[in-house]
Amino acid sequence: MCDPPWAGYAVAEESGGRTQVNVMDPTAMSTKDFSSISDNFQEEFLLILLQGAKTANAVPNPIASYSRGHVMLDFRFQDSDLTIVTSDGVRFKVYRDVLDHTKSAFQDVLAVPQSIERSADIELLDTDIETSDTIKLFFTFLYSTEDIQAPTSEQFWEIIRLIRFCVKCDASDVLDYLRIYLYLWNSIEAIPFRDVILAGCYMDDLDLMVAAFANSNNIWGGGNVRMEITASLVAQAQLSHKSEGANI
């Protein structure tokens, strides 16, 4: 009989308050089995999700705003032919053609002649994820006008809200571009493990969450666990919390 894929691997050590994942000699499996690894991981995984949900629903702090501090363009072009009005009343003047050629719900709206004839404005109403900060970030990734700096953990709620907005309006082009940045930020350790996991959860992107474990500076032991085990643990945790009705 073949050994299970996790044979010789275990989660065990506590070092400086951080749980470590280490390659272990097969004889050590007598003290740590896959079930305990899975239970330990799911507990940590749920904690990350709960902390992330609390952060994502926090009241925005204008002083610490990521979009206001790092995005230089205001997206109010003088020769624009379309105005996007956010839920907090900010008006972005952009080009219809850019949105019309971007995979998103905007493309469908602009394809309806009646809506164009009735008004040159598109009004957004969701006070949670359709505010000016979120829409400004949306246009930043859409126009790709500048290198985008990694946010701090305190600012990462803006990235989460951008993801939620993109999922809501099916903006796959922007999500794909954001995904590239998330992989980059993860690879150069510009954002912590927790933020990559949160982004992967909201994007339902298992590969991104697995990539977080390959980072040498994460709470699960510096990428020493094999990828197939990591994928199994993440997928199991996702399935478990979805079945419990967790609101990620």
Task: Describe the 3D structure.
There is one protein chain. The protein is mostly helical. The chain has one domain (62-243): Potassium Channel Kv1.1, Chain A. The protein is 50% helix and 10% strand. It is built from eleven helices and five strands. The protein has helices spanning 34-56, 66-70, 96-100, 105-110, 113-118, 132-143, 156-168, 172-187, 193-203, 206-214, 227-243, and strands at 9-15, 18-23, 82-85, 91-94, 121-123. Strands 4-3-5 form a three-stranded mixed sheet, with no helix packed on it. Strand 1 (9-15) and strand 2 (18-23) form a beta hairpin. Helix 6 packs across helix 7 and helix 8 packs antiparallel against helix 9 (193-203). It is elongated and about 55 Å long. Residues 1-34 have low confidence and may be disordered. InterPro entries: BTB/POZ_dom. This is BTB domain-containing protein.
